[in-house]
User: Fold this.
Amino acid sequence: LWPLPQSLRVSPKRFRLVPDQFQIVHGPGSSAGPDCSLLQDAFRRYYEYIFGYSKWQNQDEKKSLCENELSLLQVIITSKDSECDKFPSITSDEAYHLQVSKPTSVLKADKVWGAIRGLETFSQLLYEDDCGSYFVNESVISDFPRFAYRGILLDTSRHFLPLKVILTNLDAMAFNKFNVLHWHIVDDPSFPYESTTFPELNAQGAYTPNHVYTPTDVHNVIEYARLRGIRVIPEFDTPGHTQSW
Assistant:
């Protein structure tokens, strides 16, 4: 597991997971339900990380359960305000409690941010044997971050990065439970942000007309990050740092 949880108990007893039988669902009493797009996206995403896209598409084809088979992971948000439609902040609660047992495992968190971290932990617990079967050991985990700010910096002024590369970095950050992208978007070398108010800034300051981020690109980065519990801090250097013009 990475990073190592605050409290971890793992038993030698293991449970089998059958892709067509296993589901990640909202648990009873959760303040977040099917209308929580953030968790719905996380359920789909982590199922695909574990089993693959095609398995997610066919998961409605249910069969009878086998002995020692784990069929369900219930996610329960205990706080009245799940923060499903909000953005993460420096004070976001990322704590969670995960109990892996059969036939139903339970992931509890006060807020959706903790649930996202717990789903990442659950995905790391699973392993595949030489015959292609999936297993997870009986476990009890309680976790919360030691540091509220866990981030990386991307400098797209000195080294322009395609949008796809930035999104891939956000995926890698989520795998490692990082929660801040410091986007050093402009500086002396170039001004790759497309301003609708002052279009000459990027027209004169970008490396080429193709090396710019549109407002839609920026919106997509922020939303992609939010769905992974990551906040974006953009840095615009003013009034100096104007050599790109």
Observations:
- The helical segments are 37-51, 53-57, 112-125, 163-175, 200-205, 215-226.
- The chain has a mean pLDDT of 93.
- The longest helix spans residues 37-51.
